[in-house]
Design a protein that fits this description.
single chain; alpha+beta; three-stranded antiparallel beta sheet; 5 helices; globular
Length: 140
Amino acid sequence: MRHRVAGRKLGRTASHRKALLRTMVTELLESEKIVTTVPKAKEVRSVAEKMITLGKRESLHARRQALSFLRKKSVVFKLFDALAPRFADRNGGYTRILRLGPRRGDGAELALLQLVDAEGPAGKKEEAAKKKKKGKSEDS
């Protein structure tokens, strides 16, 4: 039984898994989207959302906690100066996972993990829907 056992092992040792998550979260916050496998994306999502919530606290302690986890100082500055204000009015749900289909080499299911406000396939659809609504309201 695995009652109350959270997280995936991802076929790695604990230190390797922690290093993988730290690197992937840093890359996600830096470029605002990454392509990876679905299980990794689901693990990275939870850590990334905790980092953004940490950025919203805007205290010295929170900044130091982020510096101890993230790999690049520039990403910490971006987190506190650009990303946290962008998500200030949102209570969680900062990322989205879009499935991309199987990888050609080994058939692993790929996913695009991106920040919600970032431009991407879903962002373009939302913009098109907004423009469509505006067009309808102007016609009425």
